[in-house]
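The freezer alarm interrupted the setup, so I double-checked each line after restarting. Inputs confirmed:
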Amino acid sequence: MKYMLLICGDEAAAAHAQDGCGGWDEEMQRRGVLQGAAGLRPPTDATTVRVREDKVLLSDGPFAETKEQVGGFCLIECADLDEAIEVASKHPAASYGAIEIRPLLPA
Amino acid sequence: MTSEIEAAVAEAFREEWGQVVATLIGMTGDWDLAEECAQDAFALALQRWPRDGVPRRPGAWLTTAARNRATDRLRREAVGAAKLREVAAMHHDLEPSGDGVDDSGVPDDRLRLMFTCCHPALGLESQVALTLRTLAGLTTAEIARAFLVGEQTMSKRLVRAKQKIRHAEIPYRVPPAHLLPERTPAVLAVLYLLFNEGYSAAAGADLVRQSLSAEAIRLARVLARLMPDEPEAIGLLALMLLHDARRDARLDDSGDLVTLEDQDRGRWDFVEIAEGVALLDGALRRGRPGPYQVQAAIAACHATATDASDTDWTQVAALYGQLARLAPSPVVELNRAVAVGMADGPAAGLELVETLRASGTLTGYHLLPATRADLLRRLGRDAEAAAAYREALELVATDTERRYLHRRLAETTDRSSC
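Predicted 3D structure, all chains:
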């Protein structure tokens, strides 16, 4: 089962952007769990695209103005949600931000 | 059909529904199919049992009937082909997955089902609704009535919860040992919530609502049997029984709450009390106390006292102290203050209440000034007591408690004006 971990946090969490993952990614790669991951530049660098009545509408910034924003993602493959929870809870961002676990639609 | 057979089917429904559904989910992985096939099996029982008699092991009969039904249905659906192979494999491999097997050799999957229904990735409301639907066999309409929401709302809640289990792949299993300490409390909390919903239901409330505490006790019995090494599961069952024993004495003829102190102890159910106390003793002997065992021990102190003054308040106060260490909360601390006030006198109790009051953690909770008022009244400080009763009256939400506070206020103002 594949899950996307959305690494979320408020502005204060941005201070951790260069912290690295404290060995988390190495461990998860070794376990064969981690399939891909990246950190994201802040929401101020985001552009949101919508197409309405054939017109491309752009807006500066993220799609939703909330206090917490997605700052990175990891694609993982786990046996079930319990393993995904265990993997997410070990990610360093879980201790200062929040991690949303989203199961992927079947390919 | 004879009423005897009808009663046997109704009894089997109460006793076996959860197990049949749990076993079918284990076999097919399909929650809706499992419920439908369980329903079909009970319908078949209503046809067959009057003719053939009630089977010796109704649970095994029903499980087999439901399993055959599932096999038929999957065979007819092309998409069911893969599942069917699994079910067919299960036929030969009815090994329990580390769970209990009852006397008839049927694996008891109810523990897996309980842990899955109460998985913390589901919202509490969903956990409760799923537990009632799949384990207790209440209909969606009944669950909606019990929780005072529309049937559509409840139906959506159940559909979403089952979808999340499927889509997010919440595992259908008893968690491994290292996860049990964090997962077991969730199961216990759902059962205790069910019990309290039923227990607090007013006398005139919907019967379904009132039946929630009986369902909770039934499920707690199953849990205690399936987790014999978990003293908290036994403690929870004991706690429920000790509260339930006082059910009839709790309300007066006009439906008003009667405080423990004023209850007619002759109306308590002493069979239930004896069972609760025996269970609790067994649990405590394990030497691993937890919040439910301690609360049950407090309930046992009350339930075994011949009257309010005979209560071992020193013991109750000590138990509240232990509970405050295991599960700290300002409400527990307030209860401890009441017990200390009875054991060591109102001045000692008041001291604890004043500390709580200064901390500000219970601001707005009417029982804080009400407790303070009672202690001040017993100390003869009537003017201060009256002021505290008035403060409590500003905050109180139920008429019953309002009447009680007015009565006490009248007493103190009468005395202070003398």
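Quick read of the result. The radius of gyration of chain B is 25 Å.
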